[in-house]
Amino acid sequence: MRQTVSERQSMSDPITLPAIEAGAPHPGHSDEKAKQILDGAREIFLREGFDGASMNDIARAAGVSKGTLYVYFQSKDQLFAELIRHDKRQQAERMCLWLDGEIEGDAREVLTELARRLLTKLTDPYNVAQVRTVMAVAPKFPEIGRTFWETGPEYGTRRLAAILDRLVARGELAIADTRVAATLFLQMCQGDVFRKLMFCVVDTADAAEIEAAVETAVEVFSTAFAPRG
Questions:
Q1: DSSP per residue, 179-199
Q2: Cα separation values, 6 from 13, 84, 185, Å
Q3: Beta carbons within 8 Å of 59's beta carbon, 6+ residues apart
Q4: Helices and strands in the chain, H and E counts
């Protein structure tokens, strides 16, 4: 018999980000200075892309010397990987403020709120630009691709699977493998809304289209996994 996420990991235990901090600044360095550098790097990577960004430009945008920049980050790819970790960690923490603790509302209400938050995050211009950049550099720097995957899609799937476990325990859904179901739900939520942005078919996400995608994903998912009998 398959184990649910709750059987593999107790819901009372915190679900933490993957331990992939190998590229992070040395713990003796100033957190405030590191944040200053990451803010400057974000500006340059967003504007110039990975290949177009230079360490000189990043240092200038961050308001630090190039020597200081290299004290914290030895290379541009290491800096970009840490920026991904930082941004995904912050997004995860904001989501956890709602995901942790008691879940209010029935399954459809919970899934609707999750889908709406997910699409709002996915369609944010910075997230779209970051995903494009990661996809472009991942073949050359696989660690960047792995970092993005582990701190973004993989982490989100585990979080959602844990939420589905709670809904199953409450008898509102009937799911044998919540990990597979979580992956399916996340893919349904993205639909054409996110893909159109990724391929520059549209410049921004239409609010009505987002709501329609959310409604469709929740309806199909909750119907497919509704308890029988």
A1: HHHHHHHHHHHHHHHHHHHHT
A2: 10, 28, 18
A3: 40, 65, 66, 68, 69
A4: 11, 0
Cα within 13 Å of Cα(153), Cβ side? 14
Q: What angle (nearest 5°) sits at the alpha carbon of residue 17, between those of residues 12 and 18?
A: 115
> CA–CA separation, 179 vs 168, rounded Å?
12
Cβ proximity of 81 and 143 under 8 Å: yes
CA distances to 92, 139, 162 from 182, in Å? 16, 27, 9
| Segments of the chain scoring below 50 in pLDDT | 1-28, 97
CA dihedral 91, 158, 181, 212 (to 10 degrees): -10
pTM score of the predicted model:
0.73
Query: For residue 46, how many C-alpha atoms fall within 13 Å in the half-sphere facing its CB?
Result: 15
pLDDT digits 0-9 by tens, 131-153: 998 999 999 999 999 988 988 88
CA distance 67 to 48: 22
Angle, helices 207-224 vs 178-198, to 10°: value is: 160
Alpha helices in the chain (DSSP H): 5-8, 31-52, 55-62, 66-72, 76-99, 107-122, 125-137, 142-151, 153-169, 178-198, 207-224
CA 130 to CA 27: how far, in whole Å? 26
Instruction: Give the C-alpha separation, 42 to 49, whole Å.
Output: 10
Please give the single-letter amino acid code of residue 217.
A
